[in-house]
Amino acid sequence: MTTAARPLRLSVWRGVFYALMALGIVLTYIRFTQGLGAVSNMSDRYPWGLWIGFDLLCGVGLAAGGFVVTAAVYIFDLERFKPIVRPAILTAFLGYLLVCLALVFDLGRPWNIWHPLIMWNPQSVMFEVAWCVMLYSTVLTLEFSGMVFERLGWTKLVRYQHALTFPLVIVGVVLSTLHQSSLGTVYLIVPGKLHALWYTPLLPVIFFVSAVTVGLAMVIVESRLSSRALGRQLEMPLLSSVGHILSGLLILLVGLRFFDFWNCGQLATLFDFSYESRLALLELGPLLILPMFLLASPRVRNNTRWLYGAALLVVAGFIVNRLNVAITAFESATGGHYVPSFAEVGITLFIVALGFGAFTLAAKHLPVYPDEEKEEASSAVVTPPTAHAEAPNQRRRIAIPTS
Amino acid sequence: MSKRPMAILFDMTVCAGCNACVEACREGHGFSDGKDEIHELAADAYCSLNEKEDYSYRNLCRHCIAPSCASVCPVGALEKRPEGPVSYDAGKCMGCRYCVTACPFSIPRYEWDNPIPAVRKCDMCWDHVEQGGIPRCAEACRYDATLFGPRDEMLAEAWSRIEEDPDEYYAHVYGEHEVGGTSVLFLTPFPLEELGFQKRLGNESLPRLTWDVLDKIPGFAVTAAAGLMALGWIIRRRDEVGELEARIRTDRVTANSKEVRHDDRR
Description:
The complex is a heterodimer.
Chain A: H1 5-34, H2 36-39, H3 50-62, H4 65-75, H5 82-106, H6 125-152, H7 155-185, H8 203-230, H9 236-263, H10 267-270, H11 275-296, H12 298-301, H13 304-334, H14 342-365, H15 370-375, H16 385-388
Chain B: E1 6-11, H1 20-28, E2 48-52, E3 55-59, H2 68-72, E4 78-80, E5 86-88, H3 98-102, E6 109-110, E7 119-120, H4 126-130, H5 136-140, E8 146-150, H6 151-164, E9 184-187, H7 207-214, H8 217-265
Parallel strand pairs in B: 1-9
Antiparallel strand pairs in B: 1-8, 2-3, 4-5, 6-7
């Protein structure tokens, strides 16, 4: 990467960013003054469109890295993954913020978004989803706050935050498990509408396992992106071992998917090359089985580009899966096709751009990649020494008797 | 005012297609904009009338006994009333449209062009029924095609009509058992797929499908939290003990070597 090419590319992306911001503001105005119909192709046949299929289902899934990595480090004590914890928490935190933002666009009456707090219907999966979003967003805010406190040099709060880490991780893992799986449970009530290739009692399990895989894939993708945008990244051996775990999880997911097709008697449907079957095969073949084989090879895992490529395939496969469940699977029962409108895509890009912007800002100004931060201690930002100290991050060892 | 569960019975074989039910419905709900023929449900059309082979049939909310819409509503805006109607409270609704997605009969309509949108569907004229009255469509019907009464009586009426004239009827009461039973029952001269009572739906109530999973959540959450805490503690302790032992071993080795040196000096 030459230094001359960099500012140019950055300014192009900056231009794209501002264009999307302007577009987003205009579309937001139309959305809230004229109603959902004015901006979206949603209808009574397709009451859920791109915003639910992509912004919500994919957004929540792509944020799964947060709970997977914190569980690995704080529960399973895999200390070598510690450098990933902060980028993963940051992604999850921003991911959930963006999901909430997308909901403000998608909900017909977003000013009533707080109603599940006082109006309870425990029979409803959506009620559970709403509580999971609220509670896990709170957990992520608390987990994320540590970076802010450190940056501001508020040592006392940093200490409180660290004392809370373990219980927060436990609560976060439980809430995430519930939330990821319940997004699949949402669809269990429509056996008559969801195509048989995607309707299965195992939907909650499939949603959970695929979220864990995509959470890890996102760790790899993000590290690559932040290395290109900010010159910061994680060490290759670490990413390779993330790739190794990912390959194991992909084998599990492929096994689960095919067991489920067999169990539901859908193997023949899968290969009948209908519209649905082709989209299912896209999701399963090049975007699931291919990266599974790729990541099984150490040569792929140890090569920056190939590892990144394989992780991208996993992410793409995840997105296609969620869009298939949210949109494709409804088409045969409901009739017609749903294609998102320009404005739906525009608002989605607006939200994604906000996410990229926020991640860049946070990665630049907060101790997200701690090692790099140390090297940059000489930069304009002067942080008190405690901000860099790793001590509070490490768990306390018991005293070793000396004699 | 009885709390006996009520039901609407629609008999397609005697319906003359006069449209009186549609007109009464629209007028009663304040949708008198001149449109009188309704073939498709809409946010301002709670029931429709269509033709098939010289017969007319209605479409309206089935007011299921175990309604998917009410079960999926996160804030309880939709509610199954003991009298039979599934009612809707726009003041509670946050607009997630899960009800529109979940309804097995694709009944609820959304006000897509309203900046303050609501879900719209037949409410079985709940305001009337609550006072012991009857829905406007049944009131308007001159041919006994749309009847209203206690559900058990409506079922008995349906079966006696089938028995009296087996040639005229398809021997099935749509809504008697499907999805756990509905509070709108249909009699038809032939199997009518358009009503959406597909075989795939089965006779079990749909909310059970999600409830079977949701039911397990509190237990799961508590067990998982306790299990993970124990697991985390055990793994941590094991690592700490391992480290400790390793250190003690090295300490001992150094101590031993010191002793050896000590012996050497002797």
